[in-house]
Amino acid sequence: MSFLRSVAVLVGGTALGHGITAAALPILSRLYSPADFSLLAVFASLCAMLSVAACLRFDIAIPLPQDDWQALSLLALSLASALLVSMGLLVFVLLAPDWILARLKVPSLRPYLWLIPVSVLLASVYSALQMWFVRQKSFSLLARSRVIQSTASAGVQVSFGLWTPNPAGLLIGHALNTGAACVVLGGRLLANTQQRAMLCGTTWKDLKYAWRAYERFPRYSTWEALCNSAAIQLPILLIAALAAPAEAGHLMLATYVMQAPMALIGSAVGQVYLSQAADEHRHGRLNTFTAGLLHGLVKTGAGPLLAVGILSPAAFSLVFGPQWARAGELVAWMTPWFIVQFLATPVSMALHVTGHQRAAFLMQLVSLGARVLTVWAAAGLAPQWMPETYALSGFAVYAAYLLLVLRCTQVDARAAGRIIRDNMPLLAMYALAAVAALWVLRALQST
Hints:
- It comes from Hydrogenophaga intermedia.
- There is one protein chain.
- By secondary structure, this protein is an all-alpha fold.
- Helix content is 85%, strand content 0%.
- It contains 18 helices and no strands.
- The longest helix has 36 residues, at 247-282.
């Protein structure tokens, strides 16, 4: 399957899945309050930080080996690690709920603490299974799984919201987002007799060999992933604890909206990129491959993100209700961050393909320190500006991360300059169209 066709298959499934989510958001914003979304923001942040490293990053190594036997050993390591981490987390949640809640300063999370280890297990198992099917280039199956997970999540959240006015539906729906996909992908894996036999026949010797061969992933990439996730999620926890109670909720909805184009194109491109990057690197073409991909990302995604950022301050109160106007303001602040993240994330796996796990870890460690310290400083100096400070710090760290990827893949400055120069007319067109639409929207609102 060609690169563009693979991307098209994944984008199609992701588009339908996010279409379902987008259709549900205006309903959810009226069924649940900003305070409910704030609780979801805390819950989702905790789950994201913990699940990203639960597989000890053996999951992202699954597409790299040349033979399936070693890849299945990595899959077994990933699943075993996810189970052990989740069981340890469950014990911790049951034994020390007061300690956890005292530090989070979110007492309303108490009834749902048990759901955190469940969500972590489902998300990490989904990540491992997803990478196995990325290796198999089963992109149509991955596309179907995304439609199913969006349908399950949105259905549960809307149903609970109509039934009972509490945030349980938001949290359970968030957990089922990956749970439904696990059923689909796990069922397909087990239905394949050969793959099931190979997975069940994995021995301790196979696991030890795979661990030694890919020990750089748990040694460096686990900490890199934790730092990367913590740099995004810890400031949200700080905002929820130290800013106005609803601020994290506004930030959550703003993030949902801005992540849609990234999930639509960026994640699909990133998975297909990872499935081919190892071969391109072996043949000495990774720099050209990466530069071409970045050119396509700027062309297809940067413009829509820019347009959403311009329109959002006026559009949010109309689409989601007047109580969400603040979220629209935050989208405008977050636009530069998400544009750079949209470019950096799909090609970031190149650092693992080229063996630069240590550099990736150090970069994420610096990013974590920078983002947490800037938000913490804002909490002391100007608490009302904590979300804006968070947005600006996101732009700075992802810009630095993109530069690191360009250097490690040997994409020179001239190639990067051509990407920007060639796409400037298109970006200007998107900006002008968004400004015109904003003027019409405000004129209609004033009448």
